[in-house]
């Protein structure tokens, strides 16, 4: 497993991160989730990503329990704050000082840890002054409850504004966590250049486009039973934008490229995002431990330029590139 620096910081993280969105505490039984976490450790992954809102706190609890006997200093733990948690009252959401301070304390309790390595703003909060948010994060860092601060799905101008205030407050934003895959490239035009300018790198989620780039969904055929596209708890909604026959036909054209590299299509998808020098790590989840063993084989893969061009040709016009789709909701949930 290869390591990369997170932004301009001195923190090294595994270039594949184990993430537990949509799985732990909801889709996968806790004992299976723990087995997947241990499979990640066995594969050399030391970086783990979660969030307080995943399964309303249950995902953090599952991860904390699974990692309880590990040497804390040998792990890099990421979590996030913004989306509604708890009883979802008026102050149980957003990036107010109140919610951030209560959020970090509750996350640490659920994780059974004294600190997290990276604490992330899960979205941009239009309802709270940015100065208030940044000052609260600065105080979290000074209290030793988080070592580094990042954000998620912020646009280029929000990154610039946030970084300017962070530096005035005595710290730096080191990362952004956007959706990014060969099918979803909305960060390339504006967010990536701004991040390079600001000393931030990407912690990308959904490198396999919710599993579509694995090739398991065939055009004109029903989704496999038990797959995300059949999950009525939320998975079906998140994957729907990629389920047209036009997209699925394009994805099938990637199989010969994966074959040339000796990779499975899922491994090709992960390796593709890691070719971007501004990507520090790709988040990969699992519902079975063998998926972890497969995914880590994408670490260290170098895709030749001519094959990268063939991937572009294969996907053609189905790639989403509109930078306006890098956005946080302007009306935060109540």
Q: How do you describe this structure in short?
A:
The protein is an alpha/beta fold. Helices cover about 35% and strands about 15% of the residues. Helix 6 (about 190-200) links the parallel strand 8 and strand 9.
- Counting structural domains, the number is 1
**Element pattern in H and E:** EEEHEHEHEHEHEHEHHHHEHH
Reading off the top of the CATH hierarchy, the class is best stated as Alpha Beta
Mean pLDDT: 93
Poorly predicted tracts of residues: none
Question: What kind of assembly state do the chains in view correspond to?
Answer: single chain
Query: How many strand elements?
Result: 10
Q: Give me the secondary-structure category.
A: alpha/beta
Please tell me what the overall shape is: globular
- Summarize the main sheet: 8 strands, parallel, barrel
- End-to-end distance: 41 Å
> In what range is the share of β-strand residues?
5-15%
Which fold does the CATH topology refer to? Answer: TIM Barrel
Strand order, sheet with most strands: 3-4-5-6-7-8-9-10
Topology diagram in text:
Elements: E1 3-5, E2 12-14, E3 16-19, H1 30-42, E4 47-49, H2 58-66, E5 76-81, H3 97-111, E6 116-121, H4 130-142, E7 146-151, H5 156-168, E8 173-176, H6 191-198, E9 201-204, H7 235-239, H8 245-252, H9 255-261, H10 265-274, E10 279-284, H11 289-295, H12 305-315
Parallel strand pairs: 3-4, 3-10, 4-5, 5-6, 6-7, 7-8, 8-9, 9-10
Antiparallel strand pairs: 1-2
Helix pairs in contact: 1-2, 1-11, 2-3, 3-4, 4-5, 5-6
